[in-house]
Amino acid sequence: MKGIILIGFMGAGKTTVGKLLSEKTGMEHIDFDDKIVEEIGMTIQEYFDLHGEEAFRERETNVLKRYIDHNQVVSTGGGIVMRPENRELLKQMAPVIYLQTKPEVFIPRLKHDHTTVRPLVVSKSPEEIRQVFEPRIPFYEESSSLVVATDDRTPEEIVHEILENI
Ligand code: S3P
Fold it and tell me: Which domain of life does the protein's organism represent (predicted)?
């Protein structure tokens, strides 16, 4: 089986679904944010504060290039689609699944997740978070080969739908 790449906004469930897909398929699971944190030796928030978002996006492109041909389950960061270069790379990759989630679902999740500090949403209002999300929708759509709606569905149901459709 070819690898599976998961894209979608923060709080869409990319990591949870990625881990379960890995269990079901036996493929290794890679989380791009974790890879970047390993490389930079600090949190993403600290890296944004020190070097800015563009430097982080550069790191993200480098990781994407490195894993382009790997047969693994990949959970990407929500902003992977921001660079045109990354969108082109994603189009050449193994099935790319857009985990489509509504703001009504991901905003409360982001607010309740105290384990990860996300610089682009921390201390933002729901309206401001929507403003980060909305311009990205066409990018997620154009970069993916399959769209899976995740609202009101369990990770098991989502994984089942992915495996039935790739
Ligand atoms: C980001 C999403 C985060 C992380 C960084 C930026 C974004 O990943 O890469 O905080 O711009 O959407 P998750 O989607 O895994 O939270």
Answer: Bacteria
130 annotated as a binding-site residue:
no
Q: Which residues line ligand 1 (CB under 6 A)?
A: 10, 14, 33, 44, 77-79, 118-120
> What is the Å distance from ligand 1's center to 1 Cα?
27
Give 106-136 pLDDT, tens digit per residue: 999 998 888 888 999 988 999 999 999 999 9
Nearest CA to ligand 1 atom 11: 79
* Residue 142 alpha carbon to ligand 1 centre in Å: 19
Write the ipTM: 0.98
* Contact residues for 64 (Cβ-Cβ < 8 A; gap 6+): 32, 76, 80, 86, 89, 90
What is the whole-number distance in angstroms between the Cα of residue 107 and the centre of ligand 1? 13
